[in-house]
Every structure is written in C-alpha cells, then in structure tokens.
C-alpha cells in the first residue's frame, strides 16, 4: 500500500505543510522553516473569490490546469485524506 506522505520511518508523527504552497515535510521542522523562509509564493494558485479578515478562498479550476495547480491540488487532497477517510483521488490505484 502506498503511503500518502512517504517517510523514512513509521515513527514520524508530525507533518509540516507550507501555508501557501502546501509542500509537506515529514517530521523535519528545520526543512520546513527553511522552505517557509525561501518560499516565493504570496498566495495559493488560482483566483481569489472571497476574502474576509484571515479567511481567503481561492478557485482552482478550468479545463487546462497548469502543472503548479495540479501539484497543489494533489497536495491538498493528500492533506484532506488525513481527516476524511472516504476521500479518494482519481489517480489512486
């Protein structure tokens, strides 16, 4: 069975994810902190459709996804599968 977040050890219980690009880091807060300091993104990919206080909702979707959007969507699905057991990606086998 393929794991959602490949890890070197089954004993890693913390997954860090960048708030903007959703790149994930398994159990390495140092790698996460380095990434956050260098991440060039200022917002998630897509069109901002709603913003109020600390909440922003972005729409990602049309018939021609960019590679960046595909990677972001896949990362979002992986994270959501940690909380929703029935979540299934189309490309999962």
From TrEMBL:
One of its GO terms (biological process) is regulation of transcription by RNA polymerase II. Belongs to the MYST (SAS/MOZ) family. This is Histone acetyltransferase. One of its GO terms (molecular function) is transcription coregulator activity. The keyword Nucleus applies. It catalyses: L-lysyl-[protein] + acetyl-CoA = N(6)-acetyl-L-lysyl-[protein] + CoA + H(+). Its EC number is 2.3.1.48. It comes from Rotaria magnacalcarata. The lineage of its organism: Eukaryota, Metazoa, Spiralia, Gnathifera, Rotifera. Its main location: nucleus. It is found in: Nucleus. The keyword Ribonucleoprotein does not apply. Keywords: Metal-binding, Nucleus, Transferase, Zinc, Zinc-finger. Residues 1-93 form the MYST-type HAT domain. One of its GO terms (cellular component) is nucleus.
């Amino acid at each position: 069975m393929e794991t959602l977040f490949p890890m070197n050890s089954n004993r890693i219980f913390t997954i860090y994810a960048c708030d903007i690009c959703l790149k994930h880091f398994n159990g390495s807060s140092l790698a996460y902190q380095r990434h956050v300091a260098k991440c060039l993104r200022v917002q998630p990919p897509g069109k901002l459709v709603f913003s109020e206080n600390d909440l922003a909702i972005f729409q990602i979707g049309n018939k021609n996804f960019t590679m960046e959007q595909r990677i972001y969507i896949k990362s979002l699905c992986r994270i959501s599968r940690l909380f929703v057991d029935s979540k299934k990606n189309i490309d999962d086998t």
